[in-house]
Design brief:
Blueprint (H helix, E strand, L loop, with lengths): L5 E2 L6 E5 L7 H13 L3 E4 L14 H13 L3 E6 L15 H6 L4 E3 L4 H11 L3 E3 L5 H12 L4 E4 L10 E2 L2 E10 H7 L12 E7 L4 H13 L8 E8 L11 H9 L6 E2 L13 E3 L2 E5 L4 E4 L3 E2 L1
Parallel strand pairs: 1-16, 2-3, 2-4, 4-5, 5-6, 9-10, 10-11, 11-12
Antiparallel strand pairs: 6-13, 7-15, 8-12, 9-14, 14-15
Length: 303
């Protein structure tokens, strides 16, 4: 499938900040507005961006309304989520895919926003951005991805636990994926695109034990989702560093589940919930070089 690129942002363009999952702290939202304005952009904040409904930013109807309003507004040139959290999984099927196809614009977010990225690729082939405005490096990468056509190269970090997961080789393909638990939840509900020929990105936060990751990777394998995948890019799996179970740690689980796929695997990529992660585009051509320890991903925008 051919990726759909959005027009590159320029100073003076309008972007929308919305909360399709959980609500940010007000000071987070203020900081995000300040970052975008420092790039010369105008910012519109969704009407319900700071609402709360249990652990979500307002009701499903209100969160979806803000998201679709941003996609439908011809003046808005990018849609940036204030945070992940929980709740995007409840509204993704209501996205206005026709509006997205008629007027492509990049979506920025990660974690629970994976529930939006993958259906947008599956239905519209829209290139989006796995990232945030939360740290200096993610801000720099997000600006590069939105306001230039330059690729982003992510270099494996030897201090990341998953850097010990490596199957040599070089792979090319469209980068798809994101948060591993979100990927699993999209299997069987028409939200997970075919990954044939793709490089799959996975990242997660530990909520329970190693069985969590084992079950999720096994589910992907048994569902056939990894059949024909070109390579595996492993981002940050936070809070697993000191965790063991019956003598195994996270690296043991990943090697056991992924080393037999017959494709290059590169771990240790600073992508996800860890300290100062990169932002990268999803749905654009990428090259994974497990020997050099790099993942280079193309731009989601065009000049």
């Amino acid at each position: 499938m051919q990726d759909v690129l959005s027009p590159m942002l320029r100073p003076g363009d309008l972007v929308s900040l919305v909360s399709p999952a959980s609500a940010p702290a007000p000071e987070w939202l203020d900081a995000e507005v300040a970052v975008l304005e420092s790039w010369g952009l105008q910012v519109a904040v969704g009407a319900h961006a700071l609402d709360t409904w249990a652990y979500m930013a307002g009701t499903d109807t209100d969160r979806l309304s803000d998201l679709n309003q941003a996609f439908r507004d011809p003046n808005v040139r990018a849609v940036i989520t204030t945070r992940g959290g929980a709740g995007a999984y409840r509204i993704w099927q209501g996205m206005d895919f026709d509006a997205v196809a008629d007027d492509p614009k990049p979506l920025v977010g990660f974690s629970d926003i994976t529930y939006l990225h993958l259906p947008l690729w599956q239905r519209c082939q829209l290139a989006t951005i796995h990232g945030s405005l939360g740290t200096p490096r993610s801000q720099e990468c997000t600006r590069t991805l939105l306001m230039t056509t330059d690729p982003v190269t992510v270099v494996t970090d030897p201090t990341e636990m998953t850097s010990a997961v490596n199957v040599p080789g070089k792979a090319s393909g469209v980068l798809l994926g994101g948060n591993l638990p979100s990927l699993i939840s999209l299997i069987g509900v028409a939200g997970l695109p075919r990954l044939t020929g793709a490089i799959l990105l996975i990242e997660a936060v530990r909520t329970i034990g190693l069985g969590q990751v084992d079950r999720q990777l096994t589910h992907l394998i048994q569902a056939g989702a990894l059949d024909g995948v070109s390579g595996i890019a492993i981002g940050q799996f936070t809070e697993f560093d000191d965790y063991t179970d019956h003598g195994w740690n996270l690296v043991d689980v990943m090697n056991d589940r992924l080393s037999h796929l017959g494709v290059p695997v590169l771990g240790g990529l600073p992508l996800g919930h860890g300290l100062d992660p990169y932002s990268v585009s999803l749905g654009t051509p990428a090259v994974l070089d497990a020997d050099e320890g790099t993942l280079t991903v193309g731009s989601p925008v065009t000049s």
